[in-house]
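DM from R.C. (forwarded with permission)

"hey, sorry to bug you on a friday — could you get me a structure for this? deadline for the figure draft is monday and I only need the backbone to look sensible"
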Amino acid sequence: WSMGYSFTCTMPGIVVFGRRWGIASDDLVFPGCFELFVRVLWWIGTMILFTYHKGQFDCNGRGFLHSYLVGLLVVLALIILSLCTFSDLPMCFSGTITNPGPRRSVPALVYLRALLYVPELVWACLGAVWVTDDSEGCDPAMVGAVITAVVASWIILLFTGLGVVFVFDPLGGPRVPPAAMEPLGVRDLQSNEGTQFLSTARSLAVKVWESRLRLLCCCLPQDESHRAAFSSIAQLVSGFFSDTDLVPSDIAAGLALLHQEQDKMEQSRDPDVVVDHSPSSPIGEDLETELEKAAHCMRFAAAAYGWPLYIYSNLFSGPCKLSGDCCRSREAEYEIVGGDHLGCQFSSILHSTGLQYRDFIYVSFHNQIYEIPFYVALDHKREAVLVAVRGTLSLRDVLTDLSAECENLPIEGVSGACYAHKGMCQAASYIYKKLVNDGILNQAFTIAPEYKLVVTGHSLGAGTASLLAILLRNSFPTLQCYSFSPPGGLLSKALADYSKDFVVSVVLGKDLVPRLSIPNMEDLKRKILKIVSNCNKPKYRILLQGCWYELFGGDPEDFPTEMDNRREEELSQPLLGEESLMIRHSSSYQSLASDNSPARTAAHLPLFLPGRILHITEDGPSRRSCFSQMRYRAEWSNEMAFRSVLISPRMLADHMPDAVLQALKSLTSDRPFSLCPSSLNGNQHNAV
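My reply, with the result:
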């Protein structure tokens, strides 16, 4: 927690100039070393320039350029001396993440370094003036070199300013006097003063996050619906970060440690009993059938992304196939298609699905917050009216994703609490009204009355499709839904159980999104706090070893976390409701947990994946060469297997629709794909 308070224990956000910043004292080592390297090279270059052109700087009789270079050498020398202190290994590399005591002198060095920016700025201004007024009649090469030095000064000052903006924490100050704080940095919030402080701090945090969202989404209309979404998301995000004082590098270090810890436990765990998808048993037959249906539907779910995914999946042939369609004017054909002015979106759907134009009943690319694109088509191969919903592909979709508080969704015939993800619930209601009120489904079943209804989607589209299937279930009892990589925080337990009869969710590997829910993120946060607070390594070692492990692999036992009094079972179980090794269960922290605000209440409501869950995993070692064969295995799972986030380089790559489609094709064709599935694949994909 910022503003000088901490509701857990004192974390290492550095406090200088009377406020806390989004950087720790041990984060200054690597930037300081890099700047030292640049400054030394600059000083050497300036010295060479000064020596080589010595005696030529008085070319117009005034010698301002000579004075500028001499002053620049002096300023650079002072800066280099100050930066050497940041590279002092015994001081800056000592201590741990939660024990910044040995680095207590770092703020004084920050003040010293900040003071040297004043003469550097003054000298950069004077240099710009002198170069402009005092360069007539001088050697052009020499003048060019001096101009380069001046420009370099301004570039470094610019990047310094950007760095300050980046680590500035709007909630970081002013700092409260030590006398007002308890010894462990915990303030009693049961008092009137503490309650007032908490209310003010939360209001400020919500306003800051609202401002950040408005700035990030400045290209979107600032109407009432968007403002309401910004406010809702701001309350959710600010509440999530309200009880920690972690800086980004602390989180990165905690994720690196947690990844190795999870790998250790996975290697020591007994092999699971896998339900084989061979047709030798009734269970296997059911799994085989569902895999074939899922592979077929995934083509339609992936096609909903339009030309971006089609081009990405067909880098060489895709542009050629779409170029002619995008450039031709076919106004008569596009009466049922909205928001596709060039025709590239619909053309890519035609190529991806293999359907004809006459097979499409309705296609919409209209995209607003809570209103996402979808299409309705006749799938003659499976004799189905198919509704495919697009996943996240725009900033508006991201806002729909992040509207993660709960919304009531009463369903006739379902007992128990019925609630769901607000953003996807509203998106499903929008599509439901289109399908039913506008007569789209009636039109489809008038053409093919014997067909059954199938709903599908990926990611955001998967969650929306599942909710849409729940809304349509009473009207279409034979409805089926195939949900690919749906979000974990989607349905209440009652709705999740209800959907098991007609929804199949497909999850690939260690995909992050099916494990995303507010309770899971709270669990992840507590695990990071626990593992970081009990590790006695300095942060630089954690990050360097973590990078090596992510890039080159190896046995995680080679990177021990060196935790004191640690039990593995503490990290293998969710920490919600447990006493963390780090969190002080004082009255102040309990007041946070008992808050009745909507955002805080929603954060404690459990949400689950929809339907039956078909989990696809790689069969074999997690790391292999680029030319090795990739094989998959499939098994039925349950929602409890996805109650915690798994850290992996593939946690984003496994969410990509093309990866899910390839895995399903591999399973149904019984032929392994020959790919380059190294752990670096996660860096080659952007989340869709």
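R.C.: lifesaver. The longest helix spans residues 140-167.
me: no worries. The mean pLDDT is 77.
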